[in-house]
Amino acid sequence: MNLDQFKHDLREALREEAEKITARGDDQARVDLIALLEGAKCCLAEKCGMGRVTVNNTYFKRGWEIASRF
Fold first, then answer.
1. Which of 5, 18, 56, 63 has its CA 20 to 30 A from that of 12?
2. Overall domain count for the chain
């Protein structure tokens, strides 16, 4: 998989999950969206050998799960 395809696929997967979160429209949605993106970022950082991060948050874990597929 080339870098452009990787970026596209990851972006689409995260967008789908982000749309579910923002559709709720509640005050917690912003926090959950940030956690989703942070989870994805930390997963990718770990895959690149930049250390390990552990956070106990549902959306952080969901972001991690999405990014770990790539």
1. 56
2. 1
